[in-house]
Each structure stands twice: as C-alpha cells, then as structure tokens.
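Lines hold sequence, tokenised fold; shown next:
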Amino acid sequence: MNVLIVARTRMWGDRRCIGGLAADGHSVRLVTATGEHWSSPEFQVGQIWEVDFTPSTTPVPPHVEDVLVTAQGFVGVQPDLRGHLLSRVRAPWRGGIDQLFGGVVGYTGSGNGYVCARLGVPAHSTGYWLPDRDLVLRGDGKHYDYRDGVSNRGLSYVGEPPPAPILPAGTLVRVSLARWWKPDDAEPDFEERCYLQLSGWYV
C-alpha cells in the first residue's frame, strides 16, 4: 500500500519514529519488522513509499497505529503536502487546545499536556490540528504554548526541523502522544502518562 510520510519524530540518538498516512486514509506508524524504531531511516517527510506491512499484534492503546514493515520501495514526492492532508485527513481538530484527543488531556504545573488512565485513554495517538491561536515557542526552545489569556498550555516539539518562533493560527500541525512513561524514581502510586507532542507543521 502507498504510504505518505508525514513525520519523523526524534527519539534517542539516530532513532526516529516514522509517521505516515496510508492510501486508505488511516494513520500508521512505521516500525521495523521486529517492532523497533528506525535507525537513520531513509523515509523523508513528503515522500510516498509503497510499503508492505502487517499491523502490530500487541498494540497498547492509544498507540494503535503501529505497523511492521516487511518491504518498502520509493514511489515519489507529494508536492502539496498541506493541501493533500486537508483533503484526506478525517476531521482534523479545529479550535483550542482543549479540542485535542476528545478533551481528555491534562496539564502539568508547567503547562505540558498529557493523557493518563485516570483522565481517559484516547482511541488513537496521532492527529492533526488547526489551532485558532498562534503556537508560541517557549523560552526553552523545546515546547510550544497555546496562550488563551488565562493559562499557557503546551506540548513538546519533537520534529527534526529547527523550531519556528511562532506557528500562526490556522497552521496545520501534527500532534501525537509519546509512549507510556513515568520516572524511574517515581512513587509507586505515580500514574504512567503519555505526553503531548508536536511532530511537525505543514504550510
């Protein structure tokens, strides 16, 4: 099946999480045949690849998009990525940050978004958003904030290109949820969380 590459998310070292949009309109996350993230993958955002894959047999919600790649071949490049995505993506979120993932996102004291079992687990871990306000790069250069005049709520930036100072309102962005995680030294009752991420934008 043809897969349009829509994101390359930084993991650790040269490892990348590869996001795609399959020809049937479903979001997929390409992992190796053994279920690993790619090391220096050849897939680039905007490229179209013919990919043979099978769905993961052990998905852990909300990360239900994983597919195991058994073969791939380069097809071409999508020249109008934003236009294509807007014509194919099923109901991108529009409006405030509270629209993301069905409104079950909570926020830390520093304003970083996350989901957890207590708040509710979404049916999927990726999506597209057309924010109604600018997304402003935080001073740490690692997060974008949605500022509504009441509070700053944001998400970490995990894409490859250098972050832009501002993503203007109406910019199509891809958001995702990191894998379940909690600190190694956390208290026994500390809940695992999937943190909110921004993996790319399309203009």
